[in-house]
């Protein structure tokens, strides 16, 4: 009897060891919350006459190729000026990377506190404040930190690392398609995009010093001009302002992400430091702006891409999505900013016409 008990104990012990080993080798996956059923895209209704006419007036008067879109998040009317054409997004496209990341959080595939380490091989071009931290010997941080840096300071390296951490360009394009965002393109990240616009093929050496600018300047004039013109005519990262305004309205209505993820992303967008006098310059006291800017390369004084897109929220809580995207212009920066200021002022004026009297 004793030997049988000992044998049984050995069997149970062995089974426990096998179970423990299996638990180590095959950890329990993160719980994936059920995905909400997709919300049908609501067609917009015609905008009130004032905002329709004012947007058209502003677009027609601007010396450059500009697209403007305005959409009422709550009332769902929409209007615009040449708003269905493709315009260069530049860093506006960082918004789609962040939405892709937050969608991955909602699906349980990543957590915002997941750790990542950036090295010299992660560096990109142009604006990358994170660069100094990386060059000190590598920089370890979280996905949440990368998102904040990508949105609020438009850091190219932080954005590209975030993009790669949640599936790369394919994941972003699948998000845009899967959520039916419409006429919005996404290219392969900042390194590939900026190189192609300049007529170059990306080289890791471009991340350091003036190597990118030197390589661009060394190109035959005809090559660089042709590359610049191709981008303006058919931008690889192009988007229609009307599609962006519609996507922003859906984001605000919690139709793209969970309420918690929506709130977190909008809070980050409310702290954007770039473009302090673009859309933001037209705000009135009590109004809030959650936004993302985008600024492209120049050639002979012409800039391909000068943008600001965002969500305006009135003191009474009603919201409006706005996209002002300049495809090509050489007018001074104050003139471009004045256009954006005036679009915001027009939205506020329209809101006050409809609701200020009722509030009093």
Unreliable parts: 1-34
Structural class: alpha+beta
Rounded radius of gyration (Å): 24 Å
- Work out the strand percent: 15-25%
CATH-wise, what's the superfamily of the domain at 42-89 and 238-360?
DD-peptidase/beta-lactamase superfamily
Strand count, sense and closure of the main sheet?
A: 6 strands, mixed
Instruction: Give the C-level CATH assignment of the domain at 42-89 and 238-360.
Output: Alpha Beta
Q: Share of helix among residues?
A: 40-55%
Average pLDDT value? Answer: 91
Quaternary organisation of the protein chains: single chain
* Total of helices: 13
Helix-strand pattern, N to C? HEHEEEHEHEHHHHHHEHHEEEEEH
Instruction: Give the N-to-C terminal Cα separation.
Output: 91 Å
Strand order of the largest sheet: 1-3-2-12-11-8
Overall shape: it is: globular
For the secondary structure, the number of strands is 12
Q: In CATH terms, what is the fold-level topology of the domain at 42-89 and 238-360?
A: Beta-lactamase
Based on the coordinates given, report the CATH architecture of the domain at 42-89 and 238-360: 3-Layer(aba) Sandwich
